């Protein structure tokens, strides 16, 4: 039972990591039905930005909490600027065109960003310092869960609640829901669809940047390729829970995290990536729209 608890808590922390990225995927898809495959690279860029800025701030003698604060804030701003620019340059001109065009554009942006960071940094893994505090009261339980995992879990919960409240009770949230339901009708009633989509990309990129800082602090390393792997896993989690649904993205992420952790613990770590896709296939065979997804009927 003790071994199972360790694996379960480890899977919970891993699920929180996937959720931070999957939320951005599901928000963009919910608005414009686009799989933004460059989202994982935004997460990677957020992590590199925090690494570079953190080193600069540390060298100037800033205290750790200020380094963390400024690194996260500036990473969010930088990643949001990337997300906004990508939407405006790579996706907006293709709006109204066949979906395959936007999908190919997303894959192209992902490759471009990977190579941009590869040329600007290095192909090797770089050490990433832990900016997160250690909780002394958690020391007796550190073999089950550490401070970084707890912080990631707490941040994920806060973000999920914030996004839910934002979409349900704010003006921009109402505009997002209108755009997601019928983009053309939303334009007719005065919704600035371009602004809504840009805001959605900015919010999604901000979440990716936060995830990049937290996850790289947890892993202790970073390189140019981490965004691709994490992005694919987060995409699987979003589809698993029901892409377009915020609670579904979080639920799918936790299921994926638990499956990988328990599978590697009881079967073999060699099949860690395979477990994700096996459970995805099973869920989609049973419920093609995902666990919390809704069947969308299209008028012909």
TrEMBL record:
One short Pfam name that applies is BPD_transp_2
One cellular component (GO) term of this entry: plasma membrane
Q: What is its main location?
A: membrane
Keyword Cell membrane (UniProt)? yes
Q: Name one GO biological process term.
A: L-alanine transport
Endpoints of the signal sequence: none
UniProt keywords, alphabetically: Amino-acid transport, Cell inner membrane, Cell membrane, Membrane, Transmembrane, Transmembrane helix, Transport
> In what way does this protein cross or attach to the membrane?
Multi-pass membrane protein
The record's listing under InterPro entries reads: ABC_transp_permease (IPR001851), BCAA_transport_permease (IPR052157)
Q: Name one GO molecular function term.
A: L-valine transmembrane transporter activity
Q: Where are the transmembrane segments?
A: 15-35, 42-58, 64-86, 98-120, 144-167, 188-210, 274-292
Q: Does the keyword Transport apply?
A: yes
Cell location: Cell membrane
Family under the similarity heading: Belongs to the binding-protein-dependent transport system permease family. LivHM subfamily.
What is the designated name of this protein? Answer: Leucine/isoleucine/valine transporter subunit membrane component of ABC superfamily
Which organism is this protein's natural source? uncultured spirochete
Gene (UniProt): livH
């Amino acid at each position: 039972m003790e071994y199972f608890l360790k694996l379960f808590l480890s899977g919970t922390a891993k699920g929180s990591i996937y959720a931070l990225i999957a939320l951005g995927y599901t928000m963009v898809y919910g608005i414009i039905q686009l799989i933004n495959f460059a989202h994982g690279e935004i997460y990677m860029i957020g992590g590199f930005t925090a690494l570079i800025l953190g080193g600069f701030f540390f060298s100037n003698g800033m205290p750790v909490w200020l380094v963390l604060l400024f690194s996260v804030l500036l990473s969010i701003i930088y990643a949001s600027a990337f997300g906004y620019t990508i939407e405006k340059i790579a996706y907006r001109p293709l709006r109204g065109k066949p979906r395959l065009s936007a999908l190919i554009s997303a894959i192209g942006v992902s490759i471009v960003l990977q190579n941009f960071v590869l040329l600007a940094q290095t192909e090797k893994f770089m050490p990433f310092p832990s900016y997160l505090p250690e909780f002394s009261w958690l020391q007796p339980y550190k073999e089950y869960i550490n401070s970084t995992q707890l912080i990631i879990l707490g941040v994920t919960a806060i973000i999920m609640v914030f996004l839910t409240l934002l979409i349900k009770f704010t003006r921009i949230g109402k505009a997002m829901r209108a755009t997601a339901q019928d983009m053309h009708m939303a334009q007719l009633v005065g919704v600035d669809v371009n602004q809504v989509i840009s805001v959605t990309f900015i919010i999604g990129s901000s979440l990716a940047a936060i995830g990049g800082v937290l996850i790289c602090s947890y892993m202790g390393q970073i390189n140019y390729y981490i965004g691709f792997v994490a992005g694919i896993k987060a995409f699987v989690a979003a589809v698993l829970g029901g892409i377009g649904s915020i609670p579904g993205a979080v639920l799918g992420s936790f299921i994926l995290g638990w499956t990988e952790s328990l599978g590697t613990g009881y079967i073999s770590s060699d099949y860690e990536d395979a477990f994700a896709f096996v459970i995805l296939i099973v869920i989609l065979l049973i419920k093609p729209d995902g666990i919390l997804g809704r069947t969308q009927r299209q008028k012909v």
